[in-house]
Amino acid sequence: MRSRRVKMLYLIKQEFFKNYHKKSTFVSMIIQVLFMLSMAILSLKYSNVFKGKSLFIDNYNATLWVVFVLIFLASNIFLNEYKYGTIKLLISKEFSRTQIYFSKVIFVFIQSVVLYILAIVMTFIINFVFTRVAITSADMQSFFTNIFCEFFSTWLIVSLCFLLASIFRSSGLSITISIILYFSASIASNLMFMVIASNKILRFNPINMLNITNQAGDSSYSHLTLLPMYAYFIGIPIYVFIFMLIGDYIFVQRNK
User: CA 170, CA 167: separation in Å to the nearest integer?
Assistant: First the structure.
């Protein structure tokens, strides 16, 4: 009988094999690059609207595409196992349901790192080749702070995707709910901030945690969120851990 570590490595390798033999994996990366290039072109043509330096700090809005890709990936990663009946095959080979669940989590985490690294590399290439915006050390600090905070907020959404994917048989619902929550921090911010002001304990809700990037860029946000920056770096990992554990529990129970 193989050890747990060997089993996990095998499952993770299988996830990479399956996903990197799909054209969609590489197509999504190409679209990410094209999306970033389109933002750079817009900044050159309409510099009064699309500020080159702001786009650089925001990695030419690559995060917006990365979030969509990861939401779609996390929401569909279990559905495909049921669709092709491979879940039964994995279980029959003495892989535990928890190992199956977390092997997919680890794969998506690694893939998210790959996409963010692609965003970082392309940001510098695009600026060097196309936009040629003068970047100061303060801009560089803002850029990497922005990337770091966006990675945290992205994984808050992705962890919720895993939870929803373990509940619903259809990926459409989990994708829809995750996207709504992702944008709700800005869309419903005024209402949420009013509720938080009247009941301060609600400031620790996960939707408010999505304001991490906004507050990192503008410290005055703390008057609305009522959260210090360190609270995000404690609260978000806790929520991710909780969502993952609940998702694993539901996934294990549903497949018994």
Answer: 9
pTM over 0.90: yes
What's the rounded Cα separation, in Å, for the pair 134 and 51? 12
List, for residues 214-231, the tens digit of each pLDDT value: 999 999 999 999 999 999
Amino acid letter for position 121: V
Enumerate long-range contacts of 204-210, CB under 8 Å, 24 or more apart. 204/231, 204/235, 206/156, 206/160, 206/181, 206/239, 207/181, 209/153, 209/156, 209/235, 209/236, 209/239, 210/153, 210/156, 210/157, 210/181, 210/182, 210/184, 210/185
Q: How far apart are CA 221 and CA 118, in angstroms?
A: 29
User: 146-168 pLDDT, tens per residue?
Assistant: 999 999 999 999 999 999 888 87
2 backbone dihedrals φ, ψ, rounded to 5°: -70, 150
Identify the band that residue 1 occupies on the pLDDT scale cut at 50, 70 and 90: very low
- Please count the CA atoms within 13 angstroms of the CA of 232 that sit on its side-chain side: 26
